Amino acid sequence: MEVPVINNLNDNGDRQRPKGKDVFKDQQKESESSMESPNLEFEYGDTDTLTAELSLYSYTEEPEFALNRDYFEEDFKSHWIELSVEEQKAYVMQLLDALEVTDRDKRLKVARAILYLAQVFDECDTEMDVLHWSRYNVFLLYDMGIFTALLELLSMEIQACSSAMRKPAISLADSTELVLLTIMYLIVETIRVQTEDDRPEWVAARETFKNELSLLYNGEPFALLLFTMVTKFCSMNAPHFPMKKVLLLLWKTILFTLGGFEELQEMKVRGREHLSLPPLPEDSIKVVRAMRAASPPASAMELIEQQQQQKRGRRSRRPLVKQDSLDTYNERDPFKNDDVRDEEEDPEDTDGGIEGEVDPLDRDVIIQPPPPPPPLRPPSERVNFPKGLPWAPKVEKDIEHFLETSRNKFIGFTLGDTETLVGLPRPIHESVKTLKQHKYVSIAEVQIKREEELQQCPLTLGEEEVEETPAEILYLGMLPNLSQYVIALLKLLLAAAPTSKAKTDSINILADVLPEEMITVLQSMKLGIDVNRHKEIIVKAISALLLLLLKHFKLNHIYQLQFEIVSQHLVFANCIPLILKFFNQNIMSYISAKNICVLDFPHCVVHEMPELTAESLEAGDSNQFCWRNLFSCINLLRILNKLTKWKHSRTMMLVVFKSAPILKRALKVKQAMMQLYVLKLLKIQTKYLGRQWRKSNMKTMSAIYQKVRHRLNDDWAYGNIDARPWDFQAEECALRESIEKFNSRRYDKNKNGDFTPVDNCLQSVLGQRVELPEDFHYSYEMWLEREVFSQSIQWEGLLQNP
Prior knowledge:
With about 800 residues, the chain is mainly α.
């Protein structure tokens, strides 16, 4: 089963646009936006700030804050912050007992009272007070066993959804019973985040809770229960599930139990130490943070204006030209020529390439002063490099290839090793010495060798010792329904994509944001912003979740194993065209989406609400960019890189779907990390795009040289391959075969059944100890009567010939 992708691309990979004057208007807007795009001071990390991550509520849920407080104050008349710890625990025990009543309405009131305790805002004057008391109450609720009780109620709700509602229109009122998810999300997110003033018992509670989430639901990870909710929703068996909160809770659960990017880096370092491998040359996140963003590519309108001005002012005086902004490390670009007319005069190339502050073709235009440089980071966070490329060189399989070529050239035969240099000239010796100094052995290579040995010698090497890591436990639970989970996540990503068009058979992801009744014009404007924000949060959660799963499964077991299994499921479910479809939009407007900050929690419950007008809604906030949208874009680009890296068949999919112009438009976002992953995707498909494309995009090629790591024998910049997608299908088939062998060897209960010796001794077989159920000795007499004494056995049949 594949995720349907709405194809609104033309033959050139661009979105369909109107003709005539509208084209020039659109190009003029793009030109102005690209010229004015500033450097984005974006700090990439696991999550946004705690305040932003706790704002999971839609604007439609604003009246529920007062409702939660009213239900809390029905039975509680005192001031919560003035009670002693014993009195607070006693009241929480009363709420815990009230959760076990059979009346759904009463349970809902108690759940809302617990939710108010997790929010506690009525007795606080500032947002910091709200966060402080919310954190205190969350640890108190967890210590009293609230999370386990909520888990049991959530399991009941999931089982009860078999008779799901078949209403034609589902709104926020249909998912009110699942307020449990909001409480559970607040507990997981608050406990997950560490602060400097955490008490010792809170630190111990965090580690305990982290271990419990891995085996909390019937001995299985809690994340599997949430994955089940996702699949039920996408199969239309539970259309009232609030998917945004389910996905946020699922993402934070995976992040908490498996670890974020810093934990991944630490695990990678420990893994290399365990295998006696040299340490990593650098931390990629720190390297990217030290990079500067390049200037955005020129649009078609800018190129046309430059050509016209060049023709008008060919004989005019030409002032000095500022150096290209891509010279990040103060080096002269070796690929930059004084005469670049052959590179940039192609009017059909709509994106031109990465540009400097001033193009050499536009020398007669008045040079505007450059914008002020962004503030420098503290010295402790900056990574200082010498002049040159930002990445340390890596040599993997280049030594074997280099020696094979050299031996064929100077000797006429090959030896198949990397040590013997007899008969080769002295410069070859020096080259091999230099290559070995930069040789990089990945954890994957060690695991590849180990996996091949286990496949070839299953009896000699015995069973593999599998460490019960959280990632291993999660993968083992996800494996039977892995394809369903992947397809469900991609369906939700498609429904939340800004470029998706509503269809009658598509899933409704707006169930927990739409109000019951129609509203005024002002409220409809607020609802429109809320719907867009709702979709953006879903994209953020899914992109971060998929990236975490890929990275953890890759570190847990790399070669054709857990990472490759998830990757292949994503590719078969049309993940690559789906991500390209996501970027086939005005990415600058998506990055700079506006929010209504005064409606975000906890601001909306602490401060007095100003009067909202149409003008204030249109103006939005004053932030330079939307953190979650830029975070989502980078995550999706990283996922696309992981799917296509070293896979020729998947790289050809990028070429077939005309991804080059789509990715080049994404370079308009002046953020170093996002540009790096876009350039990586352009690099791997450059040799398939032909010489003319490279000639027309030399500025982009120069940016790739300066920002992306390179290999010695990589012919990405000059190779010309006229291949077809089906030329590489054998790779996917071989990969699939290796995946099936791995799953059969490692997870099949009847593994090595063909090699198990048969016991032919009657006494030995009868003497084997058989494990019986615990209650068998209570009913074994009934079993004997039913299965033995009451059965008529025809012993004469044994004497007859068969």
